[in-house]
Amino acid sequence: MTRLLLAALACALLVAPFVLSSFWVHIAVKVLAFALYASSFNLLLGYGGMLSFGHAAYFAMGGYACALLIARADAPILLALAAAPLLSAALAGAIGYFCVRRSGIYFAMLTFAFQMLLYTIALKAIGLTNGDDGVTGVRPSGLLSDAVDYYYFTLAIVATALVLLYRLVNSPFGFTLRALRNNPRRVEYVGVPVRLHQWVTFVVAGGFAGLAGGLYALSIGSVFPNWLNWTESATPVVMAVLGGLHTFAGPIVGAAVYVVLETVISGQTEYWHIFMGAIILFLILVLPEGLTGTPRLRRRMLALIGR
Amino acid sequence: MTDAPVLLVEGLQKRFGGLQALGGVDLAVQPREIRAIIGPNGAGKSTFFNTLTGLLQPDAGRVLFEGRDITGRPPHILTRLGIARTFQITSIFPDLTVLQNVQVALAGYRGETWRMWRPAARSGVERSNSMLELVGLAQQGGRPAGTLAHGDQKRLELAIALAGEPRLLLLDEPTAGMTAQERLEAINLVHRVAVELGLTVVFTEHDMAVVFAVATRICVLHQGRLLADGTPEEVRADRQVQEVYLGDSLEADGAEP
Amino acid sequence: MIDLVSAFFVEHFGWMQYPVVVARQLLAAVSYGMMLFLIASGLTLIFGVTRILNFAHGGMFMIGAYLAVTAGMLLPGSVPGFMLILLAGLVGLMLLGTVVEVGLLRRIYHAPHEFQLLLTFALVFVIGDAVKLIWGRQDYSLQTPDFLQGATRALGLTFPTYRLFLIGFGLAVAVGLWYLLNRTRWGTFVRAATMDRDMLSALGVNTGRLFTGVFALGAGLAGLGGALAAPIFAVGPGLHIQVIIEAFVVVVIGGMGSIGGALAGALLVGLVNAFGVLAFPDLALVMTFALMAIVLVVRPRGLFGKPE
Fold first, then answer.
1. Mean per-residue pLDDT of chain C
2. Max alpha carbon distance in chain B (Å)?
3. What pLDDT does residue C242 have?
4. Which of the pair, C159 or B24, is modelled with greater confidence?
5. In this complex, is the C-beta atom of A60 within 8 Å of any C-beta atom belonging to chain C?
6. How would residue A295 be classed by pLDDT, with cut points 50, 70 and 90?
7. Across the interface, which of A119, A241, A274 has its CB nearest the CB of C126?
8. Is A113–C283 a contact, with Cβ atoms under 8 angstroms apart?
9. Which of residues 96 through 135 in chain C touch A, CB cutoff 8 A?
């Protein structure tokens, strides 16, 4: 059943550019990039139980790395795109070193503080980042300049990255991570250096977010400091919760629904945020398991009323 | 037999602010001993246990495991050396299946948790199943661990602890939250496994029936100091012990939780 | 070398030779700090009791400012008029806070952190657009009430009267909060809830009512802060975005849950802002967040809380 579904999905993704308008091909690229972004976040929260409220930092870092290497150093696209995850992972390594020493809400606050710190740097280091104006005009040239070609390129990279992530969460490393979410102390007492594990997870998640950010920056040809503003902290959380945490497919579905909803609603009204807020409220109060968790919905609703 | 002690504790001290929780505890546990540590609430049992197992840093004193100084080493190092522990509040991974619980533990002990590519489902299945068999959970392998009954969760925690082939097993209140009948079953399981695998066991316990059923030696902690240390008969006969503690409990015969 | 150092000092610290500038900035720092305190005290109070980081708190502040603007259109700039304007911000937000707590927050106290954060984020989005729908996109400002206009001479310097008023008012609120928390039965419960949840049920407190009360009070303080800010801030959409972040910094620096910490943190952030802007205009904002990150790394319970 799952295989059939996957095959159907693969076919749909492959023929999509022949069916969709160029506008929607562009949106499809965003869906792919955000699906990877949400999945990288899910590695932290859904599997590792670490609520990062600063994951946008690594997505944006990937975007800036890619855009700046192209705009300032004239780097080839592939090199810039390869550098994005590496630099994001390095940044996550430095920040994660401090963050994994905290847990719960303090972990969330610290990741958040670092994101805001980067936001102010992106705003103020005008010489490097152009400040508020962002880095623009970094669309790929040559082979990937065509939107459809870039779509297939993104599809290949995101699919590969998702396979890697899938293997990861089902490996002994991934199972240890789930165990960590359940009970970090017990994990220590089966001989695992817990903080190191959390740190590596933080770095890996940061790297994949960076790749997603790089892909997205190239698709829209620009990157802005607003990618780092605090209102962006919620984006990966919303996507992951929308689709359903604790499952691999959940955040991917969530990302697709999120991007399509955003596109459709903000095309109709300038008050897209009020709908977004209403959707989140609905999600939390009625659908806490996310779209992929509906069979458990009824039980949760009853529990909510009971409480 | 003059084996070196498996666990040697010398002058262990721990202070919380103005409170002297451990006032210099000395202890030697020989191979294959089943050692109970008893004492009234607040005697320092938990502090002693947590200081032994690296959760707390002692202010003074040494802990030697098989002659090696392990004072204040972090939990994951102690575990790799061959020390396993369980917790008073059952400590398992409720979202994973029973089998996966043991598989993760096994991967931890073997240092295989860094493998990021190979599917975990196939790692250590045989050994994990044999651990489950040992504690009588072989039929439950596919269930989410969180759905097990309390007593079975305790068994699972024992299997998790045993997966790494420890030589020293530290059990903090292994029968907490059980009925009198379950308690004896649980401690007999521990006893059987310890004898079968040749383990040394140190456990804390409230229930005197449980203690006297399996312990080969008993230590009595009182106000952070060792009040008595001897065979069950010696401890039972000890005047001081009777005065501060044992007398009441023996009459109550383990009725307290 | 010496030339370079002195040039550096003249460029970045030259303002120090002008007492008037220093005094002005000091006053600006303290009065801005007091406003931050009003927002941050509510935020920290709510976090202390409910353990929820309320991102929508800046929105509460913004609504308070809008309510004051609307009330100002109907009321005269006299003493009773201005009192009523402040009351509009305070009471309006206490009511809104009650509705939000009873209708939404109450359902998620036991939910995981991500749901709590998302819920307050949803409120941020809703409030941000709702004020645009109600008040439009233009910036408003409330006229400073007649009796607080102009300047006051003190110590040989002139200060804007309204700034002085803000400082006095902020201090009065701080004293009032101190009294409420330390000298009343209700305050005892609030402090108990902040320190030890279990103690609260042991005391036999109706936690539901207590949580509603705390959230209403916190929201009311934000609304009051917004009303007080209306004469000196441009009241428009997006006001909440900046405000909440500074309030967060204050709360983190002061120690999450501590009112005294919020006061100290608010003054510190006010000072860093006012003088940082003079010394290193480009770095002031960066320094604020660097401070926040450093505090969380080194002393997660805050500079003024007990170390962990």
1. 90
2. 62
3. 85
4. B24
5. no
6. low
7. A274
8. no
9. 104, 107-108, 110-115, 117-119, 121-126, 128-130, 132-133
Q: pLDDT tens across A123-144, in order?
A: 999 999 999 999 999 988 777 8
pLDDT value for B257: 37
Written in H, E and C, the secondary structure of chain C is: CHHHHHHHHHHHHHHHHCHHHHHHHHHHHHHHHHHHHHHHHHHHHHHHHHCCCCCCHHHHHHHHHHHHHHHHHHCCCCHHHHHHHHHHHHHHHHHHHHHHHHHCHHHHCCCCHHHHHHHHHHHHHHHHHHHHHHHCCCCECCCCCHHHCCEEEECCEEEEHHHHHHHHHHHHHHHHHHHHHHHCHHHHHHHHHHHCHHHHHHCCCCHHHHHHHHHHHHHHHHHHHHHHHCCCCCECCCHHHHHHHHHHHHHHHHCCCCHHHHHHHHHHHHHHHHHHHHHCCCCHHHHHHHHHHHHHHHCCCCCCCCCC
pLDDT digits over C92-110, tens only? 999 999 999 999 999 999 8
* Angle, vertex CA A170, rays to CA A169 and CA A174, nearest 5: 45
pLDDT value, residue A307: 37
**Shortest Cα–Cα distance, B163 to chain A (Å):** 9
CB contacts of C283 in chain A (<8 Å) are: 124
Question: In the structure, do chain B and chain C come into contact, i.e. share 3 or more CB pairs under 8 Å?
Answer: no
Q: Where are the alpha helices (DSSP H) in A125-171?
A: 126-129, 147-169
Which whole number is the average pLDDT over C151-158? 78
For the stretch A49-61, pLDDT in tens is 999 999 999 999 9
Say whether pLDDT at A304 is over 80: no
Determine the residue of chain C that is closest to A286 in CA distance.
C107
Task: Please calculate the CA angle C261-C262-C265 and round it to the nearest 5 degrees.
Answer: 80
The model's pTM is: 0.92
Is a pLDDT exceeding 80 seen at residue A278?
yes
Nearest CB partner across the interface for B76, out of A171, A174, A192 = A192
Closest partner residue to A110 (CB to CB) among C126, C133, C296 is C296
More confident call, B48 vs C19:
B48
Touching C: A residues 257-276, CB under 8 Å? 271, 273-274, 276
CB spacing of A191 vs B109 below 8 angstroms: yes
Chains that touch A (3 or more CB pairs under 8 A): B, C
Q: What is the pLDDT of residue C294?
A: 92
User: Quick check: C293 and A123 CB within 8 A?
Assistant: no
